[in-house]
């Protein structure tokens, strides 16, 4: 297994930095997005004004947004139902089950979708396995739930190997 399986296609500061225009330039018509620490802070289920504006902009432009989360249905539904976002729960990233389910359920073409997440070990790896483009974002908050803390330790080792081979990942304000 090569380190390139964990290398994101793009790296941006936050999912909210994705604009309708930049997605369009890359032929992206759907965004699969991780929930915790990507779309919302894991400890702030109500989201932010910035998140609501981003979702509104995407919806107005006809860009499909689907949350793909490893969390339970109860947790994901509670977090997204007030925003009217479609979701796939218990997605088992880094495996492709959740991504595959989202693509099929919402009739999304692999060429027109991107997976956005804050973890190399789950989000980026699952995107590569599924054959879709990936965007790494910085976590919204620097402290994680216990499950994620375990992944972050492994992720630091992978990040070190990526930096040795490719140099540091450069986070930009858009794609």
UniProtKB/TrEMBL annotation:
GO annotations of cellular component type: cytoplasm
CDD domains from the UniProt entry: HAD_BsYqeG-like
Molecular function terms from GO: phosphatidylglycerophosphatase activity
InterPro entries: HAD-like_sf, HAD-SF_hydro_IA, HAD-SF_hydro_IIIA, HAD_2, HAD_sf, PGPP1/Gep4
NCBIfam families reported for this sequence: HAD-SF-IA-v1 (TIGR01549), HAD-SF-IIIA (TIGR01662), YqeG_hyp_ppase (TIGR01668)
Name of this protein: Haloacid dehalogenase
Species for this entry: Streptococcus himalayensis
